Amino acid sequence: MNRSLVVKNGIIVTMNKKREVFKGNVIVENDKIVDVIKGESKESGETVVDAEGGIVVPGLICSHTHLYGILLRGSPLKISPPSDFTQNLQRIWWPMDETMNRDDAYISALTASLEMLRSGVTMFADTFSGPNAIDGVLDYIEKGVKEAGIKGIISFEATQRRNIEEGYRGLEENIRFIKKGGTKVRGMISLHASFTVTDDLIKKAVEERDKLGVPFTIHTSEGKWDLYHNLERYGKRTFERLRDLNALGPRSVVAHAVNVNEDELSIIRETGTNVAHNPLSNMLNAVGTAPVPEMMRMGINVSLGNDGYVFDEFENIRAAYLMHKLNRLDPRVMGFLDVLEMATVNAAKAYGLENVGSIEPGKNADVVVIKPLIRPTPLTESSAYAYLVNSVNSKDVDTVVVDGRVVLSKGVPTTVDLEKVNKKALEMVGNYWERLKTAGEKVEVLKQ
Q1: Segment 320-344, tens digit of pLDDT
Q2: Which phi and psi angles does 400 have, rounded to 5°?
Q3: Is residue 278 within 8 Å of residue 307, measured between CB atoms?
Q4: DSSP annotation string for 1-54
Q5: Fold designation for 2-58+366-411
Q6: pTM of this structure
């Protein structure tokens, strides 16, 4: 039978319930996987991807990103070096946020999506922050993501750090985009962090989360400012306050959760809340190390994000694998499978995505073929996990299939002309950088 697409002769890391790894073939009809065959197969396809000598994995999922963060790469900000995370926000991120317009949001979404695609990411969850570009901005982000050919859950990061009304406008932008509907790019409810939003805005966000049946995300306990703010104003730690406002639960994804104690870990577990771990960003911002090994032992669902810093998913996988070994001075902490689950099935679970995260019949045909450029040791079923975690990077990604469509072939995107994209980006980002040169430090405090 002639299928629409066949990926043949690869070592398939299925990430199915049995976590099977075997050499075989993935059979695709339209946008779905219809069969996964061990050994040889006589199935033919309109499109055939030869994965001989390579590894076939489910499309990777980045559970927390800021697409617009890509515009910071080599940026012209002239600032005094920040001494802590709070100053990072005041001197880097908040001036950047306030300089953003809708066109900046579009070009950052397009280029960041292409960079993630290049490392095998087929789905991500993004939060955008730009208080001077709220209304309609998610449509611009959607345009960039669709042009790149991957899928996303996007949102506006509602905040009241400048004034109370802007938080409600941000929430309304999320609601508008969610109601617009979409399959490849959909919306969610997002708040910045508990230290920049009032109880009332959190309550309204939770109400919309439950009414619309969508995910909810918020930054939590990244730096200590979040913790101190809640202790000083409410007499509660971050997760105690969020629990009391019903902001936690199976549809909630909290980013970071670094500065938490045992009681807060119990709250995360008891509420079924999901955690998005961002190891490279946490190291960059010097905020500490999230207690991920403890979370895993407690049965908390931990997924993997990049927080808008390094968009190569394999670098983030490797960081998650290594960071906790060093922090605990114990090389036994974290296994290959642990971190691969974070970037696939755990991330799918966090956002209620039942049709992605593994290679199984009935799942969406999101498939990645990885062909390491250099293979100094045998690449086999037993060595596939080690290759993926220890040595693979975006240069090794050969083919990416999203919903049955080849969107990256031989390492090159098929949906856009990269030369034209780079030219457009240089022009648009050059304009953004000129505006960014005049951005000053933003020392703002939630006034309510």
Answers
A1: 999 999 999 999 999 999 999 999 9
A2: -130, 130
A3: yes
A4: -EEEEEEEEEEEE--STT--EEEEEEEEETTEEEEEEES----EEEEEEE-TTS
A5: Urease, subunit C; domain 1 (2.30.40)
A6: 0.96
